[in-house]
Each structure stands twice: as C-alpha cells, then as structure tokens.
Amino acid sequence: MGAVADAARRRRSRSKVTDEAPGHEQLLELVQAAATVADHSSLRPWRLIELRGDDRLLIGRGLAEASGADGKSAEKLEQKALRAPLVLAVVLSPVESRKVPEWEQESVASGVAHLLSLVLDDEGWGVFWRTGTDTRHEAVHRAHGLAPHEKLLGWLYVGGRTERDEKPRKLLEPGRFVSAPGSATVEA
Ligand SMILES: Cc1cc2nc3c(=O)[nH]c(=O)nc-3n(C[C@H](O)[C@H](O)[C@H](O)COP(=O)(O)O)c2cc1C
Asked: How far is the CA of 130 from the centre of ligand 1 (A)?
C-alpha cells in the first residue's frame, strides 16, 4: 500500500483538539498540496478564510443573527468556534464558465477541503469538518465577508491532538460500494 493510501486509512476526524495549531506558513504549504485536486479548466473556484483568536467569533455572530439568538444563546454560539485554535472557513468561489457548471466547481472546493483534512491529519494535526443548518444563511455569509456569488461549505476545525483520541479507525467493507453496471449492491 502506498503512503497516501496508508495516510487515508489512518485519517480520522478529531472533535476535541488542543490549543496548538499549525502556523500560517505550514498551513500555506499544506494548502498548496491540497490544491492539486482535479480541477476542470483549473478555475480554482475556492478559497479559505483563516480564523484565529477573536476572528473566530464572527462565526457565532453570524449564526446568532441567522437564528435570531440573543443573550446567553448567542454567547453559546460564539463559544462554539473556540473549540479549536484554528478554524478554516471553506468557501466555494465559483467562476463564470460555460463549460464548467457550479456543481463541478463545488466538487473541486469540497475536494480541496477533504485533501487538506487528510494532509493536516497526516502531519499530526487534529481536524474536524463542521457545518450547521444555517451554514448558508445570508447573515452567516455576510459575517464572513463573502461576495454574493460565494457559498460556504462549512468549517475545518484544526488543532493539536489529544492522546485519548488515538483509537484506530474502523474501515468499511468496500465491496458494497463498487459494482458492475446494472447490479447495484448498495441498499437504499
Ligand atoms: C461537509 C461536511 C460537514 C460536516 N458537518 C458536521 C457537523 O456539523 N457535525 C458533525 O458532528 N459532523 C460533521 N461532519 C462529519 C465529521 O466531520 C466526520 O467526518 C464524522 O464525525 C466521521 O468521522 P470520520 O471522518 O473520522 O469518519 C461533516 C462532514 C462533512 C464532509
């Protein structure tokens, strides 16, 4: 098995992370690696917003405005983004194209986030991709300073690993998900 397949088999999401985080320069190196995903016409229809420190609070502010929460409930929403020292908002930034529809471009943005999660994990960091029912609410988009044509794909929460997290992951039975045409084996 090659090194990438090994890293993929080892990868797991880590909901609890420590206050340690990759620095900006290391992040850029890993984003460069993740940006090698297949990208029809090389449109680069994505960007990441790097949130550290108090910048993370903008997520909760947007979510509070979206849900109409105030007082203690709004505070609770704000605290959620403080669960990791680095939060990366994943943004679909579609490019006008007659050849590449938006769903293809969203696949690219999603692919970058998945590959970035893998390379961060492989470098020893803890990562958890989160969303919520209001992820695409206009107030949340505004809080992130998105342009009208952009959309959020959620947030990668990144931090140091805790020791209690080190269970090996359970691998699925792949035969159920791969079939010859006309012989679907995946039950609905
Ligand atoms: C787009 C996307 C959004 C997600 N949003 C959430 C979320 O809001 N809350 C959650 O518990 N898991 C969410 N997940 C799932 C976790 O990130 C994680 O994949 C899941 O807990 C399974 O763990 P594993 O990646 O180690 O298999 C999301 C995954 C993706 C791809």
From this structure: 6
Is the whole-model pTM more than 0.90?
yes
Largest Cα–Cα distance of the chain, in whole Å? 56
Domain residue spans of the chain: 3-163
How many CA atoms lie within 13 Å of 157's alpha carbon, on the beta-carbon side? 19
pLDDT tens-digit map of 119-178: 999 999 999 999 999 999 999 999 999 999 999 999 999 999 998 767 778 999 999 999
Task: Report the nearest atom of ligand 1 relative to the CA of 129.
Answer: 17
Amino acid at 46: W
Single out the residue of 8, 44, 1, 2 nearest to residue 119, CA to CA.
Answer: 8
* Cα–ligand 1 centroid distance for 44 (angstroms): 24
Rounded to an integer, what distance in angstroms lies between the CA atom of residue 20 and that of residue 148?
34
Bridge partners (DSSP) listed for residue 48: 90
Q: Which residues line ligand 1 (CB under 6 A)?
A: 12-13, 128-132, 154
Instruction: Classify domain 3-163 at the CATH class level.
Output: alpha beta
